[in-house]
Amino acid sequence: DVPKAPEPRCDSDGPRRGSLCSRHCAAINNVQGDLGDLGCHPHRPRVPPAPCTPCCCQQHSEEVCESCVVKTTLTAENLVEANKLSNNYKFGFKKWKSHVTARPWEDRSEIVKELYSDLNVIRSSGGSTVTCGNVLYLLLFGWWLSLLYVLVAAVMFVTVVGAPYGRLCWRLAGYFLWPFGKVIQKVEVPKSQDEASSTGETSPLLGGPVPRRWRPRCWADTGYWQRAGAVVWLSLGYPVLAVAHGLVCVTAWLLVVLIPVAKLSARTVARVLLLPPERVLVRRLRMTEVPLEGEVILCCYRAVNPYYYKYAVDGINVFAVNLLPLVLVTLVLGYVDSHNHLTSSSVKFTLALLSIMPLSYYIGMAIASISAQSNFAVGAVVNATFGSITELTFYITALIKGSREGNRCYAEIVKSALTGTLVGCVLFVPGLCMVIGGIRHQEQRFNSRSAGVSSALLFLSVGGVFAPTLFSKVYGKLVCGECHNVTQNPLGHYLCHNCHFDLMGNNGTLYYSHVQPLVYTVSLLLPAAYLIGLFFTLKTHSHIYDIHISDCHMPGHHHSAVVHWSRWRALVILLLSTLCMSACADLATEHISPILTNSTISQYFIGVTVLAMVPELPEIVNGIQFALQNNLSLSIEIGNCIAVQVCMLQIPILVLFTIFYPTNFTLVFSDLHVYASMFSVVLMNYIFMDGKCDYFQGTVLVMVYFILLAVYFFAPSPSGC
């Protein structure tokens, strides 16, 4: 309970120092919780300071200044990140959360530093090495790697000249069976042995610095037996072990949490196995012993680290890196195996759909990089142009295929995907963010005014999109495919099937004279309303989206922005990702026919779930991350922005496309789509009314979404499919 404070007064210098409102403002703006301790200085680029409100906290102590509630604070390490945040986190633009600059090493947490460190650091007390992750390593890799080293050691002993390498493999067999708490060191050869090398007492293979090639540098100065041992090792032992460690490295890297094992194998192949046997020392570390002599090559304590989901390669998340080969496999299988000799259409469709996820990530990363290094106008154009490229590419390719085959089912699938995206972004995305954010924060506040603007536009867009549908219901002619007399009486009751409203009666007079002009009118008004909303929120009423950028840095540290991708590199990646996206969308639509015809699940359900939500997975992850940081305003804006773009940009673009390329797509939706969309928008507007939420309200939204999915699951397939 906060004691009631006297009425604050606003002087020319601002609000009274130490007032309750100021303390509330400081508590709300400081969403990171430690900005004050880090010496952060909030600032807003190109945004004038908000005027002081004299009636901030007059009546009740728990009331918070409205100007404080609507503020959203983000943290930027440098000017490039601040420019990206200022350009991207606006109304009507997709929110791309990827970091476009390298974070300073000194500002990273100890957990993140451990992820990027080499496995050559000895800790004084590492605790017990018997963990579940280490046992998992033993079961997956340790036992057969150790057995392989024993077999290679036996082969080396049989050759006689490779006996030194056999002894090395024997020691490494024990190491790789359980490498935890052990260390591999590179010891220096005594001077006497160096002098005796001319007589053939030491191995010349990779002596001194580690060479970058397999060919030894100075065979002419070595003895015959040492050269023979090196040749045998490079011919028989090293290739087998390199292949085995390569397999371990790839497998562990793909599993992400086992990346320490991947580093262990890569460092073994690159360094340990290329050293002379007498220079490799394997020893066990004790709790009080820290070896000081010799270079430490390998020292591993844990095989599993769950925090490796944060690992990035050149600014790219490790999951996006691992999924990139999937895109290549999809394209090769899709266009080389066109007759389905290697895989079925279902497998190709699944691969093409999964390939859209990493491509969406790369498109978002490229857009964020270009926006961060450009002015607001360039960033806005790039975001508006490529922000919906993923969905539009799939929809247009599906409509083209349906038009060529004369199959109306593709148009119905596109309508289902559009409705599924709208319903999912209005219910599932904010609801899931509320639930996950509510686990960490008891109550979360968000910008109710900005949510109100989005809700108003959603009402307008839903009304405009479904206006032709409602018009057709009023003036259309109900036509049924088959009717049966139930009572055997000519004047009795009839049971009819496959009934729909026919718009093409009388040679399509109703459609071409009334419905089609209404569709074109709506398709012009919706983008105009979108532009008015942008002008309202970005120009005349920009204080509604009052985003603060906190330049947070440690005192005494100089932060120089090191950009991961330059503008030209980001542009090239953006174009290549868009091209690959088009190819994957083409493969998905090419191989969706067997799924639609042979599946027992309703085509409505396939379009609403799989085709609608899979491309939006990167945005869902971004929303969850914002919610965990107590930035629920941005989590809600992610869903609202996608829903607004579906109604006000994507659907008008599809209508415009049908003018130049006639397809079966008409802006007349089924009753199920109309009711689900309108109910979702009304429920969202009711939940967002008070500007605060908790996990219970999020649970309500998620449950309503799953109820609608159940309705789509049990619904019959649309006519024409």
TrEMBL record:
InterPro entries: CaH_exchang (IPR004713), NaCa_Exmemb (IPR004837), NCX_ion-bd_dom_sf (IPR044880), YccF (IPR005185). It is found in: Endomembrane system. GO terms for biological process: intracellular calcium ion homeostasis. Coiled coil: none annotated. It is a multi-pass membrane protein. Keywords: Antiport, Calcium, Calcium transport, Ion transport, Membrane, Phosphoprotein, Transmembrane, Transmembrane helix, Transport. GO terms for molecular function: calcium:proton antiporter activity. Residues 132-182 form the Inner membrane component domain. Signal peptide: none annotated. PANTHER family: VACUOLAR CALCIUM ION TRANSPORTER (PTHR31503), VNX1 PROTEIN (PTHR31503:SF10). This is VNX1 protein. It comes from Pterocles burchelli. The gene is Vnx1.
